[in-house]
Amino acid sequence: MYALLVLDMQVGLVHGPQKPWRCEALLETVNALMDKARDAGAPIFLARHIGPVGSAIEPGSPLTRVVSELKLLGGETVFDKRRPSAFAMTDLADNLRACGATGVVITGLKTQYCVDSTCRAARDLGFDAVLVADGHSCSDTSVMNAWDIVAHHNATLDGPFCRLVRAEEWHF
C-alpha cells in the first residue's frame, strides 16, 4: 500500500513573497491526489516545516498553517518537521509502517529542498518512493528558474531515488 505525503503546503510558502511556480496547478494536483488517496483508503500525511523560536515559522506561527486551498476532511495526519527530510527527527517512518504502507507518494514544496531530501530518505529507509512529476514546485532562484529546478530534480531523482509518475497516471 502507498501513502500520500504532502510536503510544506503552508501559508508562508504558498502565499509568501516568492510564489511557487505553477502554484494554482499544484494546489489542484495535490487536491486531486488527496481525493484519489481517500477513494482508495490510502493514508494521507501532511508535513509542515517549523523553524526555531523567534523565526517567521516558529511553532504556532500562522505561516506554518496548511493552506486553506487544500481540501482537508479530517482524516489526514498533519505533523511538524524541522529538517528538509520529512523523515528526519519525526515519527513518519514508524507511522507509515504502522498503517501498512510500503511506499510513499511525494508531492508539495520545495523541490530542491524538502522534496529532494524526502525522496532520497524514503528510499534509504526501504520505502518505494514515488515522486509526482507535476506535483512539486519551488520559486525561481538567482541562479535558476523554477521550471529548470523542477525538470532537473525530476531527471536526477528518477531511478536511483524514486519512481517518477505524472499525477493523472497514478492510482493508489
UniProtKB/TrEMBL annotation:
InterPro entries: Isochorismatase-like_dom, Isochorismatase-like_hydrls, Isochorismatase-like_sf
Ranges of residues in domain Isochorismatase-like: 3-151
Keyword Hydrolase belongs to the record: yes
Keywords noted in UniProt: Hydrolase
GO molecular function: hydrolase activity
Record-given protein name: Isochorismatase family protein
Organism for this UniProt entry: Pseudomonas brenneri
